[in-house]
Amino acid sequence: MLQSIAAKLIGRFVRDQRGATMVEYGLLVALVAVAVIAAVTTLGASINSFFQSADDGLNGV
User: Fold this and answer.
1) Total of domains in the chain
2) CA–CA gap between residue 55 and residue 61 (Å, rounded)
3) Is residue 34 a part of any domain in this protein?
4) What gap in Å lies between CA 29 and CA 35, rounded to an integer?
């Protein structure tokens, strides 16, 4: 009897896709966050120098 209850619970768990979808979306969000952080870290210095030169140019006007 205990084995049949366990088998039913495991079968229901395997067929349920809601949790898998949530995990997939979570992994996708984490991947996008890592990509954004990497891009900002890589491009941060050049973007800063670009805006600094633009600021210097506007101060000269």
Assistant:
1) 1
2) 10
3) yes
4) 10
Note whether residue 28 is domain-resident: yes
Residue 47 φ/ψ, nearest 5 degrees: -65, -40
For residue 7, what pLDDT is reported? 80
Q: Which of 43, 25, 22, 45 is nearest to 33 (CA)?
A: 25
Residues 6+ apart with CB under 8 A from 5: none
Asked if residue 26 belongs to a domain, the reply is yes
Q: What is the pLDDT of residues 3-52, one digit of tens each?
A: 788 788 777 776 767 777 888 899 999 999 999 999 999 998 899 999 99
Is 42 in a helix, a strand, or coil?
helix
22 within a domain of the structure (yes/no): yes
For residue 17, the 8-state DSSP code is -
Query: Nearest 5 degrees, angle CA 52-CA 56-CA 61?
Result: 150
